[in-house]
Design brief:
With 1451 residues, the protein is mainly beta. The protein has 10 helices and 98 strands. β46 and β47 form a beta hairpin. The C terminus is likely disordered.
Amino acid sequence: MVDLGWYTDDFTRINIFLRYVFIDWQKMDEQQSPSDSLELPLITRSEKFVTARQFKIPTPIKSKNVYFYKSGDPQFSGIRISINRRTFKTFDSLLDNLSEKIPLPFGVRTISTPRGNNSVTSLSDLKDGQAYICSDQRKVKPINLELANQKHKPWFISKPFNPEQLASRQIRQKAFKSLHGDLTSSTGIPKKLVIFRNGDPTFKRNLVLNRNKVQNFDVLLYHISELMNFPVQKLYSTDGKQIDSLYPVKFKLEAVVAVGREGYKLRKYVDSKFPQISNRDQLKNFKKAGKYRGKWKVTIVTSDLPSAGTTAQAHITLYGDEGNSRVIVLQGNSEEMLQPGHQDTFTIHLKNVPSGKEYHFNVNSWMDRNQDDGEISREVPVMENGKEVFPVTKYEVLVVTGDLWNGGTEANVFIVIYGKQGDTGSRQLIRSNNPLKFRKGQTDIFYVKAVHLGNLQKLVIGHDGLGAGNGWFLEKVKITDTIKESKGFIFPCHRWLDQGEDDGKIARELNVAENFTFPEKHELELKRKEIWASEKWKFKAGRILQFYCKPIEKFIRLMPDGTVDATAEKDDPNALFEVLIKRKGVQVFSSVVNPDLALAIDRNHVNGSEKAGPFCELTVHPKTNHSIILESVQIPGQIVAFNLNGRPANASSKDYSDIIKDFIVHVKDAFENDTVVLLNTSLYQSLCITSDGTCLGTGKQSQISYLRMHEVSPKIYMFASVQNPQRFIQIKNGKCDGMGTGDKYCHFKIRRNLENATISLESVESPGIYLGLLSDGHTIPFVHTGESNVMFYPRVINMKKKDLSKSVSLPNMLEKIKERPKVNRSFRNRISKLNAASENWIVVTKTGDSGTNANVSMWVYGDKGMAGPLRLLKSNNTNIFLPNQSDEFQVSMENVGHIYKIRIAHDNTSTKPHWKLDKVLMKCVNSGKILNFNADRWLSTEHDDGDVVREFPLIRESDGQPVYPVVKYQVCIHTGQLEKLDSYLPIYLCIYGERGDTGLRYLYKFDKSTKFKEGQGVFFQLEAVSLGKLQKLLLRTENDKRSQRWYCDKVVIKEESDNRLEYVFNCDRWFPYILMDIVQPEIEIKLSEIRQDQNSQEIIQADTWEVIVTTGNFHLAGTEATVIIYAYGDKGSSGPIVLGTGKQQLFKPSSTDTFQIILVDLGEIYKIRIGHDNSSNKPGWFLEEVKLKEFNTGRVICLPVNRWLDDNQDDGDVWREFPIAKPGEKHLPVLFYHIHVFTGNKPGAETNANVYINIFGEKGDSGKRKLHKSQNNQIIFQKDQMDTFTIEAVTLGMLKKIIIGHDSMKAANGWFLENVIITYQENNQEYEDIFLCNRWLDVNREDQKTERELFAKRNGEAGEPQRRIPEQRSARGSSPESRLAWGSSPEAAARMRSKSHVEAGEGKRVLEETYLGVAESWYRVDQKHGNNCWTGVWHGWSDHVCSSAQHNIYL
């Protein structure tokens, strides 16, 4: 296939009609290629994955970034210079450099602070990040730095040139042109250029080049200087050739080295994938490699039609089955080249193309902006036997611009589409179906002709950054093959392509969402979540709401007799509902007039019921049009619905078109004096007042857009900026801005738009004139015509709970409403299906003098487990739990063995929650056995000890005594001595012991919220049946805010009856804690120690260890992620122990951090695993060493690591495992487990979600590992594909099972997994384990699970999969990386043992040699005077690790 195109500029005629292209291969002569030809390598797929190994880590140099401005010139945008000991050695050298960059008549002679008060006389006086003024005189004229910081685009800045330098450069350019021709005309195709800092290959920047950005070589140097933040004087190719013109940069090189005044420093900047400037060096290396070199003739026949020729620069790109040739410029000296009726021949050189064939391409198309389809680039397939080997297809490209103000663009947009059979090259999207392209909320359709690409994989889309409004918010791109009538490939974006928004990028690489049905659903769910984020403020507890039915223009109301309809007017008091929060995501909407009634759904119809009932629990589902759906929690699928007459309707009826189920929510009396609001203009934008007084509709939904409402008179308000309180929104003299001072021009009347819950602001001074928005987001006075540009979605920030008795809009409403008659309504209860192995019991409760209307639940504990919660709903009595009444309930539960206690609780709801329980009996229906539980306790917050949860032990028939006593546990929560604001948090606690648990109990004190202060202990009391020896506890909170946390030092629990024993649970962390950037609301803490009392010695002590972690000593070695450690012993393993996060000033480069951890009942430790959660912006971590010290024995374990824990470094793993040997024994080997994952061949079987696996064996597990670096495929988990991954872990013994799943966080995340095969080698024997699946891991299929537990089948067992691992698989443990890891193969160990012994020192006797496979290290155990000493030799250097008796090292 060939791709032809023309480079154009403003002075070139570009129209051409091309008829024919002929390419002929010739044998390469030994002579050098002609000067008018270009030689470019053919890129192969294998070259794309070559990475450079960095052997030497540079030492970072501390620099100060200082900003300099011109005295008295606010138009000078300033320059930033990096100052360190290498760039400037003296203050005079800095003045000379500034004189070249800042145009002053006598150069820079004075540097002072911005106000001119203090002069700078030395480099040490300059401070990092500060701004200074430069002048050629003693006195400095101050400037407005805020105005000077508004920089112009670099390509619009003209740099003053040195005439002598310009003349010298022109001479060199003229000499170059005589050799290569005048090729300074630029292409219209953007090109990415990689720029390296001289001497530092790790510092690089990307620059997108196009014809408007680079006018000449000096402007290019200036722009690169701005990008690199230092004055760039020269450019070099990566192989050391100086560049003096634009030609190599624009047409040949993809990477350059930016050099200042110093000389070029030779480094290994790039891989072989970047072309070099030296053809001679390329030929030399090419011959050494033994590759083919071919000289080709390209013949182009131009049509004889009038005006069919062109004077533009032509280029060609060849595509083969191993890659493409990149762009090759077709050069010639003839003035008749590419003219009508001419046949032109060009010579090009290609590599890696051993062929003697001739290829023919029929074109017969215009390449003209004004002809045909306007394309100036064509793709043509090879002709064989008169037929095209690949079809040419017409792709329909739908580009959806986001519905955001200023979201459109006037820039030139380019796209590159990639498929399995190549790419289209860069194409400009020119001809749209709309007269104006890329407007706000608009869908543009373009057509791109190209040789068929097969299944599309990704695309790159961007713009050139030109035009008045060049920022662009791209929603998505959809591409359809119009010839093959495919369903379309969707590429979601949902981001800005704007230098001033998001990450500043103007080009994006978008991956295809390959499941054709799921992307739309995923996009819809994403939009609903975003709408809910802006609407959820309406559904907080205490809000007074109205539900508006748009089709019939009426409101929902709840009448006193319990009937519900949708026929109310706006001022009907029965249409007001108060929000009650039952639990997260569950609301109850009670009537304001009749507080005991609430909206309920029963038998698919809405009605009124007592608000304590289960059918009143509703959940809110937002829709994309800002309406909501109310669904029953008790019976999912049943929703609130009405017909067109406003009567309750069944939403599941066949006549679906007449059903109203979407409602607009209005908040009653939301606006009052001093209310802070956001007036949202879109899902992501708000109305804001900028610092210069401009009023825009493109502000971010944050504090900078907060507006404070000032009530002037009823329903008349002013809106002032919270950040700038003296600035008000005003409409004055036909303009709208934020420069108001609070006069009459700032007065607005709020008009509510019932159909979409928006508001409009009408000027009081100019009636009929409203605040409106232009397409670019600027405000302007408008006449309200129903357009959305005058409507704003309010979001109240500081609204308080409304007191209806003082409401202005509802005067004396409560007095006018008559007392409603009581209505008794019965509802059906949902009965879950019973398990076939369950037991039926009759539970009899006897109520005392006080009954309850609350919801009662029950838990049953036996020696085989626990059953519950069991809801006590259906009784032999109509009304249950009445005073002095016995109620019988039938419950079904699994067999829990011999029952020894029960727990009964209620939810403390309804108007009569207080309950006096006298007795509980349980009778087994099958055996007739009766169990007796004496109660005689209150379940009430106002009686007894105020608890609504009670535990009762079984009463023995023999002596009438309880089997276990009821005890009171005294709980003391100790907070840390850290500076932190005091926190009010609802805390729940569950204690676990030998005999079950206490259940999750709310810790309250004197019916008030618990306030946790720093450095104090808070005491609670909890009553339960004795648990025996305590084992662990669970802390939980309902708080999910990062800002409201407290530091938990430890929790101490003891029985009130036995004060001698204290159970200590050390926590030592923030709570709730943050893991993987998510707030974790609960934490499990294991028992640390058991003490007699504060004055006695400890009688049981858990193992206390000190963990010392050393981070690498270069500037990129640190991490901001959360670091976690696991420990494994022969008696068990510890859970995840969070050491800390880099955001807490831990794990910084060259730092050593020390932590204390408690390991309980693990036995002898045989391995640890350390890693991080890969969160934050800088998760990568270079771990140098880990040391473990046991306090009891003084034992020290040194574990040298020197490995990356990074997705993009080393083997891409963020976890490392290390074996730990018992004293005098060998450690376990570290193996490489090769995981072969087979994706099924069903439609939609592939996934692009993040897949993880955890392998379990006889010796523990590998931990959850991410599978993302396949050894055989670039795109993983595709349909009917096998992917191979490798995991490094301490031996697990015989494998038992795996847990594999994905996070379902991306589009097209459904996955059909066929099977998994794991192979590994241990003790010179190969093993292969098979894990069959053949199931979906999809939230929308089968059982909706995204995680599977698969059990191992050894090779040869029944059920072996049909597909097996291919014969040609990579050898295990043979890579260089594998030899640098723990536990290399036995062959590697043998090779290492063959090395010569290392003399450890005079007088020492070598006792033992132990190979430890750590970076090919040798360790020896020497003994002298009874002291053990380890000596390590690492690639020629030796280090004495430890030599004291108290710090013996066992590895």
